[in-house]
Amino acid sequence: MSFNNLDTLYRQVIMDHYKNPRNRGTFDGEDYLSVDMNNPTCGDRIHLQLQVEDGKVTDARFEGEGCSISMSSASMMTQAIKGKTIDEAVKLSNLFSDMIQGKKVDTEGLNIGDIQALEGVSKFPARVKCATLAWKAMEKGVGEESKE
Fold it and tell me: Structural domain boundaries of the chain?
């Protein structure tokens, strides 16, 4: 597949997650972690909720406002971390952070799915904070959970 075709495919994946976000919404009740974060540089904001049981992320939801990169990344992240242990979710977040900063990462054996579509954001340093907002919120949430 040529670079242009791959670039077009990745843009389509990003726009699909932006227009049809997965796991958008909130949980009822009180059995979840809640994290609010924003990117003051561009105004992106996220309200992330995580259900964690026995050290594993069992479900994730988000609400927020922001650019297509920020909101599609939140959608992809909520899909990617479901069923993962806290350690696995943080490891995936670190991998994503490296990838989005243009570092060479080994994704062999990892099922990162649609997340790969955001790799091109590394060419636009001003957008890195947009792409990592949801991931930083997740790290903050599970970090607080592991302290309890």
Answer: 3-147
